[in-house]
Amino acid sequence: MYMIKSNLAISRRNMIGSLAALAGTTALPMPAWAMGKMGGRVRNGMDQLSGPDVDLHVGSGLFRTGSRSGHAIAVNGTVPGPLIRLREGQDVRLNVHNMLDEDSSVHWHGLLLPFQFDGVPGISFPGIKPGERFTAPFKVRQHGTYWWHSHSGLQEQMGHYGPLIIDPAGPDPVQYDREHVILLSEFAAMHPHEIMKKLKVSEGYFSRQKASATDDYDFSGAERRMWGRMRMMPTDIADVSAPTYTYMINGHGPDDGLELPFSPGERVRLRIINGSAMTFFNIRLPGLPMTVVQADGQDVQPVEVDELQIGVAETYDVIVQPTKEGAFALAAESMDRSGMAQATLTSQPGRQAEFPALRDPPLLSMTDMGHGGMDHGNGAHGHEGHGAKPAAAMDHSQMDHGKMGHGKMDHSQMDHSKMSHGAMKPDTNLGAAPMDNHDMANMGGMKMRDTSLLPDSVKVGPGIDMVAMNPMDRTGFPGLGLDNVPHRVLNYRMLKSLKMDHHKRSPDREMQLHLTGNMERYMWSFDGKKMSAVGDDPIRFRYDERVRVKLVNDTMMAHPIHLHGMFFEVVNGQGHHQPKKHTVIVQPGSSATFDVTTDEPGDWAFHCHLLYHMHAGMMQAVSIEFPKDA
Amino acid sequence: MMHRIFAALLAGSTATTPLLAQSHDQHQNHSAMDHSQMDHSRMDDQPDQPAAEAPEAESPSGPLKAADAIWGAEEMLASREALYDEHGDMMLFWFQGDRAEYRVRAGEDGYLWDVQGYYGGDINKFWFKSEGEGSFGEPIEDAEIQALYSRAIAPFFDLQAGVRQDLTGPTRTHAVVGIQGLVPYMFEVDAAAFLSDKGDLTARIEAEYDQRLTQSLVLQPRAEINLAAQDIPELGVGAGIDNLELGLRLRYEIVPEFAPYIGIEQEWKLGDSRDFARTAGEDPSVTNYVVGVRFWF
Q1: Burial class (CB in 10 A: 0-12, 13-18, 19+), B5
Q2: A463/B19 Cβ within 8 A
Q3: Locate the Plastocyanin-like domain: which residues (chain A) (predicted)?
């Protein structure tokens, strides 16, 4: 029986009992809020912790923002939990006290540390039992913006997360006068187990943007019939959305009027963390360009944009420099544009910014179905106005190679057959290629699920409703709905690591992994096999292998894929400046490739960071051998 | 707890000892390119370029075990089982009243129920269905219940097999084999064949389509055909097409789980069934104006 846990199931007596036991056995200094005040009101926002010993108390209580309230899991009495601030090179002991009446855990997202402290129950440790304490002692080997969250059940959705910032040992390569942590998340009054059940039994349950006879979508009858014929929804952008979610910044919904101060002329560093369970956000501050300086905690060469899409679990540090007095809207619009998280960057307390209206929701396109690279006979690849433009496939005869940053290359020396032009510089003017709107009606005749295209490693079954016919590398794609906005938007190919890596090795081997799913049944998996089917059989690597992993997305949703314990380099055409990341978005019907050096031994989790996708089975374990003579 | 943390610390510091004496010979195979001629800073590292032609390293194999070495295999066991159970093997219970309605028509007004539900995982489910109808002031005309094993056989289809028990009239037990799922153009289809303990073979095909008018208002055309391989006079069933129903319902989803509706349904008995009906003094063509509720939980 799948248990729906009541919101009221937390036993107060249990909690106080375990608290007392904890206090008795460990003789810890107990803060006032931890002494029997659990079950009360949870505070919005977070405190800061630092030092060699950091203590997190996981409890529960009632959370409220705007008109929405409900049960939440709080850490040290707040949602989000406290900001942990460390310094590169220091020794730290992270202590987690579980005051819930169920198992809990904390995963330190993006941190390099011995695997047994990584905090994934069933993979790296047994979990933290009610009333128990878990300690992760390690030396901090990096700097940057990260976060932490529960890896137990669906606790993360209920508030069990917080930011983690590590200051560099030496001078910071980024100059700034002031900083603000921007932790994006969602709050739902509905219990996550109930959300999961509704997703399973009712496709599209949470969407109020479905195609209908009276919608405003610019979408012909033929196109609608084609989607119907394929039993797919072009509106399937986000599984859970407003109004079920209140989108939050630092635990504050739009009604809270969160203000972030600045003084004119200051360089303000925004450390943006997507700590949500299910939501990709489009971030912009109308009137203020953002200079991206860090991605997933790793310094990158500054790149100025007006908007960026941040996938679940990603982080971006940006610099903004408002020169005049005033109030600027920090608008974090959900990718499906059903709602917005809001904060005001203001030079005068109480002065709120005007927020932009939600834009029209985007629609999925043929490219998102993995048909983007098909030759339709008339050279048409994209579907203008409906999202994805053809990021990669192109007719080379139409291209001016001189414009592509190849001027310095000696082509005679190169084997062009080995080059994927998909990874070319993003400044290539894709729009110059002739693009007639192709005949969608004919597209319906194409095979949505040609399983002969799949390698043997993929288990074909009812859990796969689509196979990308021609999955292109779309690291140059800025994200659903942002490919035709009239301003600069970040994409992965614009990310270059700050430092050049001359020691980069060629991959020793390659592997391909397919992201698979069935929207109707809400089944999600890697290679057609759910975590429950793979069980104890991890993806195995030798110590210090160099592996190129190609992720092929055979679904129509964007998946943020996260590898625990180490950083990989996104193969984005930047050569020795490939950016290091812990999470990579694989666009719908597309591929993304990363190189990883497997020098962090142990067992690590590898999963889609959309919480309900992971919970449905889109997860694997990665096991890296210990060095033999270590 | 403390000694375990200490052990973990020790293991942790061992685990992170860098291995410096690693041979990199195998990584030097760049023979396909002349590096002296190329500007590496501008060279794209291509996603589709095969790895240098080094022999493919044989990947190691075996179960997860690193955490066992630190925390103990027994300690890990329960959390590992929970991890696998939670991540993919979820079991669900679902109940749907597809139609629960009051039917206004010539003669006595009537009622109808059509419910179904399941308990199970993604692939295997126990499925149950019940439908029945009658007129007020009379005994229940038709009532049946089905218990089925349902297995996902394709992305959009379940194969279902089990038994059906008729609860009214000359009661019968049937073996059932059917297919339920979503066909192209989003029609929900439920087709089943029934073989009764009297040897009668019948079949039923139902199709529904949800046309969303607004986010809350849904127009649902529905068709049902009952077929029989032979005359079954005691049930009033004739060989061939026994009867045909066409309905149109307009429902308002107050929440997706609860949607009242109004509609109209036309029912015809055809062929021998029509004759059986006439003989029994019934009208072989009936128009029902319906009001009802669709719900699930």
Answers
A1: middle
A2: no
A3: 68-168, 244-339, 506-622
Asked if pLDDT for residue B3 goes beyond 60, the answer is no
Among B111, B142, B144, B112, residue whose Cα is nearest residue B128: B144
What the block records as the tokens of A39 is 């079950």
Chain A residue whose CA is closest to B217 = A212
Whether the per-residue pLDDT at B260 is higher than 90: the answer is yes
Contact criterion met (CB < 8 Å) for A117 and B47: no
Q: Which residues of chain B make contact with A550, given a CB cutoff of 8 A?
A: 47
**B220 contacts B208 by C-beta, under 8 angstroms:** yes
Average pLDDT over residues A544-565: 96
CB contact (8 A) between residue B91 and residue A530: no
Q: Which residues of A touch B86 (CB under 8 A)?
A: 153, 615
- pLDDT of res. A371: 79
Task: Using an 8 Å CB-CB cutoff, list chain A residues near B93.
Answer: 1-2
Verify whether the Cβ–Cβ distance B16 to A114 is below 8 Å.
yes
Of A131-135, A149-153, B40-44, the poorest mean pLDDT is in B40-44
- pLDDT score at A422: 38
CA distance readout (Å), A538 to A280, A532, A594, A607: 28, 12, 19, 12
Mean pLDDT of chain A: 85
Burial of B276: CB neighbours in 10 Å, binned 0-12, 13-18, 19+: buried
Can you give the pLDDT at residue A91? 97
d(CA A515, CA A314): 19
How are the residues of chain A apportioned to helix, strand and coil, as percentages rounded to the nearest 5?
15, 35, 55
Q: Where do we find the tokens 């208002």?
A: B217
From CA A389, how far away is CA A470, in angstroms rounded? 15
Q: How far is A289 from chain B (nearest CA, A)?
A: 27
Q: How confident is the model at residue B59 (pLDDT cuts 50, 70, 90)?
A: low
This prediction has a pTM of 0.85
List helix spans (H) across chain B: 2-15, 66-71, 73-86, 271-279
Pairing mode, if any, of strands A340-346 and A308-310? unpaired
Give the H or E element holding residue A79.
Answer: strand A78-79
C-alpha pair distances (Å), A68 with each of A41, A65, A406, A431: 13, 6, 55, 45
Torsion angle in degrees (nearest 10) through CA of B253, B256, B262, B264: 130
Q: ipTM of this complex > 0.85?
A: no
From the list A439, A429, A447, A423, the residue with the least C-alpha distance to A594 is A423
Rounded CA separation B227/B206 (Å): 12
Contact A123 B86 (CB under 8 A): no
**Residue written as tokens 């490739």?**
A593
Q: Cα(A629)–Cα(B19) distance, rounded to whole angstroms? A: 8
Across the interface, of B16, B87, B183, the residue whose CB is closest to A619 is: B87
Residue identified by tokens 């073979």 is B201
- Compute the distance between CA of residue A532 and CA of residue A397 in angstroms, rounded to an integer: 48
Q: Is the pLDDT of residue A392 over 60?
A: no
User: What is the nearest CA distance from A374 to chain B, expressed in angstroms?
Assistant: 17
Distance CA A618, CA A609 (A): 9
Q: In which residue are the tokens 């994409």 written?
A: A491
Taking the CB of residue B35, how many other CB atoms lie within 10 A of it?
A: 10
Name the residue among B120, B190, B195, B128 with its Cα closest to residue B159.
B190
CB atoms within 10 A of CB A390: 25
Residues of chain B in contact with residue A120, where contact means CB-CB under 8 angstroms, are 83
| Cβ atoms of A198 and A616 closer than 8 Å | no
Neighbours of A292 (CB within 10 A): 20
Least confident of A441-450, A615-624, B93-102: A441-450
